[in-house]
Structure prediction request, 515 residues.
Amino acid sequence: MVEIKHDNILSLARMRDSAFKGGGLDRIEAQHQRGKLTARERIDLLLDEGSFEEIDILKVGRGDLGSTSFPGDGVITGHGKINGREVFVFSQDFTVMGGSLGEAHSQKICKVMDLASRVGSPLIGLNDSGGARIQEGVDALAAYGEIFHRNVHASGVVPQISCMMGPCAGGAVYSPSITDFVFMVERTSYMFVTGPNVVKTVIHKEISAEELGGASAHSEKSGVAHFVYPNDILCLRGVRQLINYLPSNNKQKAPFLDLNDPPERTDPTLDYLVPPNPNQSYDMNVLIYSILDGAEFLEVHSNFARNIICGFGRLGGQTIGLVANQPAVLAGVLDNNASFKAARFVRFCDAFNIPLICLVDVPGFMPGPEQEHGGIIRHGAKLLYAFTEATVPRITVIVRKAYGGAYLVMNSKHIHCDINYAWPTAEIAVLGPRGASEIVYRKEIDSAADPEAFLNEKMEQYRKHYVNPFVAAKRGYIDDVIFPRDTRHRLIRTLQFLESKIGPRPDRKHGNIPL
Ligand code: HXC
Prediction:
């Protein structure tokens, strides 16, 4: 009896050892040659040292329909800690059949997804996969369906983060695209539904993998990737940084972190941030970095729709989600991409109890056929919908321009933002002075002796009467006009009293956001 037990201990050691070798030393070497880490090396870097507990290391495919006999079936799964907080993780092993996904591989991922949802911890997927395992046929497709199902049902329950760390195709991109945040690594990760070869066959176009689905394509053009890093190590560090801002699940608040930055700190230079000329731009980042604790800000989608800034920071130790127009890019106008980008960010924050701060300097929606035909009505409506349905604490500061529909959409009082402030430099009106005067005085301008002088006079009158924050403040649409220098302090005090906010939720299955 004792003998048998001893044999099993030896067998276990052998099986584990074999699992550790993945697809073999040659393929591990090839992975390193490509500038990529192995699936296990990645887990070690992602998690707190020594905290990883593996699950299903011995699981193999059924042995029929082309499934593998590699222990672990090409994916490493388990849980560990990031800065002391539990997360669940899967890491695909490209050295085993290109990290392709078959039945056993999928079952392993599904098991950690189920556990993550059940215990309320984030799920992090390290993707390096050629998609559905061709040899497993329809079983591989079924296996992806099980993952998609879980991605959707875990959405808004636990944060889901996807790192793209190799060439990923088919199901290996659709699952990540359902998750909350997609990270990519420059020059080693690609995402496409169909690769360059299929593109060539079907539409006779030659295109490189990098051009079609590299990190820059997805972080600058498609908006699929939220974060891009130059290598695996920095990418994994980036995930740790993001996790630090987030609660573990939708029932919790984000962890409090005191960065020793006094809440009452003022910044007199902010009084001079907005230039006297309303057509002159400035960098909204100056305000963002000035008000946040320790000047720490994690920008999301930093290369996409740069006319709006979204990201996480802290105010008085509390995580906040920040949405700000960027007057230094396209004058901060709202266009299709900016609306989509901000809407998705707002919904994430609302799902995970992260208060929203909105800094406004927006001249309006981008006019023209390109935007209209591209769906600015649909996309703008997404942002309007997202802010309006959000029940987390919502605070707005109107820094300069807030015109027309864009004023309303950017978390205005009228869509039930909790508290909104304006700087004395705010311009709140239906249209800018030129547009408004040209419409209202069209006939008079045409018949004036000096049309330009007449227009200028009317614009000046309009500016004086309408383009300021005081009209809105007198109506109570603005809760206070504040000194720019005091912005940080006012925001922190407001967040404190809003902490116990209970937002009303209508009794319905779900709303129908204009997707
Ligand atoms: C089985 C696969 C595989 C797959 C790669 N391999 N993809 N095995 N099923 N889907 C294997 C290769 O045969 C090879 O095995 C090893 O992985 C490495 O692949 P290479 O081609 O040598 O590597 P590379 O040149 O880097 O190219 C990687 C790649 C390419 C871009 C991922 O392999 C590729 O295009 N694969 C197919 C992608 C695809 O069309 N997948 C199906 C998507 S459909 P050896 O033994 O030689 O090392 C899908 C449906 C889901 O996923 C539903 C979606 C909604």
